[in-house]
Structure formats: structure tokens, C-alpha cells
Amino acid sequence: MAAEPVEDIFIDLVDMEFINDTLYFIADKDENLESDYFGKLNPKYSIIRNVDNKVLIVNQSKQPRFEDMADNELQENKPQIRFIMYLYKDSNVRGLAVSFSVYSKKMYTLSCKDKIISFKEMNPPDNINEDKSDIIFFQKLVKGHNKKMKFESSLYKGCFLACKREGDRFKLVLKDPNEELPIDSVMFILEDEN
């Protein structure tokens, strides 16, 4: 049995107009056009490790940091290390759009507002009617590493989540493209959980 042919969706351009030295195209009908948005899909549960095998944990003050953690300590720390990664449909194709939350009596969601990493007390919204958000990151596979991921901010293009050492501690930061951090500081390993 032959498959049904798929209709091409196209935009019928009927006119052009210059406004302030910018060329705009005017469409005949725009009912097939979608505005920019992120739409929440299914969650996935993960433990996040840096390349030194340290586990990302959210402490009582909601400051994310990386710690050494033996396998037998994972269960007792589960509410602070089990991240709920909500996958989002993206109206633009830029990578897998995700948000990170933890549930510890209340829901807290990772934000990079003002380029400061923190957890806000909030449930990730079902829809975000913009093409950038402080809680949306694009998950990308690190070239040459089949299990390592990096996460680019949708709000700050070129800025990635990173593990930064401060004394004997490691914390989660948003790495600016000009900031001097080791290349592997933006690489993370996700351990999926059920």
C-alpha cells in the first residue's frame, strides 16, 4: 500500500516593502504561521554529573553545586539530586529545548536571569510565548563524546551551563563566551532515572 502524499506547507508572498532599510515580505494568508514559543512536552528524570564524576546537588539555600557522592549516598539525597528535565517543543530548530527542576517539598526551576544561576520556586510553564527564556536551555551533544552534553542558554546565545571551581567547591554557573574556563567545564553526563 502506498503512503499518502504529504502536502507541502508554503507561504504565498504577495508584496515586499522597505521600512527603515529593512526588506519585509507580506504574505497572502498567514494561518499556517506559528508565533515563536516553547511548548512543554514530557518530563525525564536525571542525575547530572560533571566530567570529574561529581553530582549536581541543590542545597537548602537552592544554590546548585557539585559534590563527590558515593553510589550508596544517591538514594538518601534523591530529592536534591534528581532533576526533572522538561522537554519543550521549540517553534525554531535550535537543539533540544529543556528546563531543569527539582522537587523538594516544592518545585524549584533553574533560571539564568541576569546571567546568575539560581533556582526559583516555580513550576515550569506549559507554554512560553517567546523564543527566549531564562529557564530554557538547548541540550547539545558534545562532538566526539557520545554521552557528554552541554546546555546553551536560550536567553543568552553562546553562554553555557558550566562547572566552576571556587576553592575546594564546585558550583554551577553560566559561562560567558569570553570567560576563561576549561573546555570540559561545560560538559555534563546525564544518568536517566525512572
From TrEMBL:
GO biological process: cellular response to lipopolysaccharide; cytokine-mediated signaling pathway; immune response; inflammatory response; positive regulation of cytokine production
Any coiled-coil regions, as ranges: none
Cellular-component GO terms for this entry: cytosol; extracellular space
Main location: cytoplasm
CDD domains reported in the protein's UniProt record: beta-trefoil_IL18
GO molecular function term, any single one: cytokine activity
Recorded superkingdom: Eukaryota
Any Pfam family: IL1
Keyword terms, alphabetized: Cytokine, Cytoplasm, Inflammatory response, Secreted
InterPro entries xrefs: IL-18, IL-1_fam, IL1/FGF
Localization per record: Cytoplasm, Cytosol; Secreted
Stated family: Belongs to the IL-1 family.
General function of this protein: Pro-inflammatory cytokine primarily involved in epithelial barrier repair, polarized T-helper 1 (Th1) cell and natural killer (NK) cell immune responses. Upon binding to IL18R1 and IL18RAP, forms a signaling ternary complex which activates NF-kappa-B, triggering synthesis of inflammatory mediators. Synergizes with IL12/interleukin-12 to induce IFNG synthesis from T-helper 1 (Th1) cells and natural killer (NK) cells.
Subunit and interaction comment: Forms a ternary complex with ligand-binding receptor subunit IL18R1 and signaling receptor subunit IL18RAP at the plasma membrane. Mature IL18 first binds to IL18R1 forming a low affinity binary complex, which then interacts with IL18RAP to form a high affinity ternary complex that signals inside the cell. Interacts with cargo receptor TMED10; the interaction mediates the translocation from the cytoplasm into the ERGIC (endoplasmic reticulum-Golgi intermediate compartment) and thereby secretion.
Protein's UniProt name: Interleukin-18
Organism: Erinaceus europaeus (Western European hedgehog)
